[in-house]
Amino acid sequence: MTSNGIFQIVVFFALLLILTKPLGKFMAGVFEGKRTWLHPLLRPLERLIYKLSGIREDAEQRWTQYTASLLVFSLVSFLFVYLIQRLQGFLPLNPMHFSTAHAPSNATAMTPDLAFNTAVSFMTNTNWQAYGGESTLSYFVQMAALTVQNFLSAAAGIAVAIALIRGFTRREAKTIGNFWVDLTRATVYILLPLSVAFALFLAAQGVPQTLKPYPVAKTLEGATQTIAVGPVASQEAIKMLGTNGGGFFNANSAHPFENPTPLTNFVECVAILLISAGLTYTFGAMVKDTRQGWALFAAMSILFLAGVFVCYPAEQRGNPMLSRLGVQQNATSTQPGGNMEGKEERFGIADSALWAVATTDASNGSVNSMHDSFTPMGGLVPLFNIETGEVIFGGVGSGLYGMLLYAIIAVFIGGLMVGRTPEYLGKKIEQKEVKMCMLALIAMAASILLFAAASAVIPFAPKGYWNALGPAVANLNNGGPHGFSEILYAFSSGTGNNGSAFAGLNANTPWYNLTMGLAMLIGRFLMIIPMLAVAGSLAAKKHIPATSGTLPTHGGLFVGLVVGVVIIVGALTFFPALSLGPIVEHFLMWQGKLLSMLSFPIWS
User: Fold this and answer.
1) CA-to-CA distance for 170 and 151, rounded, in angstroms?
2) What are phi and psi of 107, to 5 degrees?
3) Among 9, 176, 258, 305, which is most buried by a count of CB atoms within 10 Å?
4) Residue 602 pLDDT more than 60?
5) Whether the model pTM is above 0.85
6) 3-state secondary structure of 544
7) How far is CA 309 from each of CA 377, 439, 503, rounded to the nearest angstrom?
8) 225 and 215 Cβ atoms separated by less than 8 Å
9) What are the pLDDT digits (tens) for 285-343?
């Protein structure tokens, strides 16, 4: 590692820490119904939404009603996005004529399975993209379908987190809030103002925001080049703040029109974790003990920094196979050293590793470098981050309720150790809560492992429906442990609602489009529904005063217990699969050095 790289990481984390409290305090005020400094400007808009939608602001819902509202809203969102994609050839703002007979020769057809995959992806806040945005979707689809879902899916995640917090704060209550009110407030007071300010900043930095057709330029050689542009800044802002990650361009945040400068790279990376970090303070403020929020922030931070300082050294160390060939792998004043494959020179190794860890800690999925080109250990960190359930800050809302899931399990384990009924924030953690938490963990693990295993072993017919791209598709994917890592990463990303990819797997086939769509649905709703059931159960319970036997949940012991549970559950669940992918690939990369050091026949 270099001193400059370490300095950038420290500055990044310091800024995130500084912003956590003010944003978290503001969000707590919004969801507690308090008047904020934005109310004079945005309260009329909030009231107008309630009036047009027939929402009663003072009406509350049981957890079953809250869940039903979320599911109906998600279904309508899915159908809306699916239909707009399929009909884009007949809709306005389609200057490149996608899905028509006049589409460019390099355009990707929006098939039913691809439209299904994309609609599920954006509805679940996954933003997995098995297509290139600039060669597939019209401006209208990018704005009316994808950008809108970037707001709404993120707001839905925040709403679920707030409902779970109310489960801890209420006593013998039957309701946990109103989904429609929480959705509206998250959108109007949090996501919309931040996105407007961020979009203006990005536009000032050179990110395009236009509805004009793609311009055609002449190159120095005299050839013509079509330059893809569009309403990028507005989509980029909510893509980061809402931990969505779906890029306007196929290269995502490695593209100079999405991420043109080191300054935009730094600010966008902060935006990925900003709201998720702030929600930890919101949690503490709403339960009337900010120490509880800081304890969760500390657990997330430990896991985050551990990931950064495993991934960054692995990439800075580079590939020992190249060192043995005499290639300079050390950083100097004239070159960065290490593994620069798949990375942008304007960002370098430190910023690429930091982004890779941040985007997979959150359910963001944007990339400013290609994870497929990372070293085995460098690529293992993003993969394992997703497989923890993306609770290391995590997605907006989803990271908090995911970490609270682990906190409940940690409290339960702590109770078993001392032989008493576990308690968390004055609520007894009993059979129902533990069962719901385990259901969410098992569903996530089963989705990742079963879909990955099936995809790795099923012999698809070269010209069959499930492998519709023909026999050439077999040559587009890697074999061996790296090829398995690509498959495992894909289903981890889909189930974890992350959306990033190793980028070496051609996923635009009916098999991957449909199975990845199912994985995203499992990862979203078989996490949300159990956690809302937990919220309803906790809200109905009495408050139990703390005693000398109560496990303190705001100190270092509890933080260590939560961190241990996250790592142990992830390791026990996924270590065998990881051993077949990045771990064995790491040993294969170092086998020459190990041979010379150990002279052991097993490595020959």
Assistant:
1) 28
2) -70, 145
3) 176
4) no
5) yes
6) coil
7) 11, 32, 23
8) no
9) 999 999 999 999 999 999 999 999 999 999 998 888 777 777 777 877 778 888 888 89
Q: Please spell the DSSP secondary structure of 14-28, one letter per residue.
A: HHHHHHHHHHHHHHH
Q: 544 exposed, middle or buried (CB, 10 Å; 0-12, 13-18, 19+)?
A: middle
Please give the single-letter amino acid code of residue 456. A
Q: Token match 């703002």: residue?
A: 93
- Residue written as tokens 């808009």? 45
3-state secondary structure 465-488: HHHCCCHHHHHHCCCHHHHHHHHH
Radius of gyration (C-alpha) of the chain in whole angstroms: 24
- Compute the residue count for the chain: 604
Burial call 271-307: b when 16+ CB within 10 Å, e when fewer: bbbbbbbbbbbbbbbbbebbebbbbbbbbbbbbbeeb
Tokens of 160: 């679920």
Name residue, tokens 């330059």.
227
Helix axes 376-387, 480-495, angle to 10 degrees: 30
Extents of the domains making up the chain: 398-603
242, 153 in Cβ contact below 8 A? yes
CA-closest candidate to residue 529, choices 121, 74, 190, 183: 74
- C-alpha to C-alpha distance for 230 and 211, rounded to whole angstroms: 6
pLDDT bracket for residue 477 (50, 70, 90):
low
Q: Of 558, 33, 31, which Cα lies nearest the Cα of 291?
A: 558
Q: Kindly list the distances between the CA atom of residue 184 and the CA atoms of 78, 280, 298, 371, in Å, as whole numbers in the listed order.
A: 19, 20, 30, 36
For 386-396, b/e burial (b = at least 16 CB within 10 A) is: bbbbbbbbbbb
Q: How many helices (H) and strands (E) are present in the chain, helices listed first?
A: 21, 4
> In whole angstroms, how far apart are CA 466 and each of 118, 446, 487, 511, 513?
17, 22, 16, 5, 10
Percent of the chain with pLDDT over 90: 70
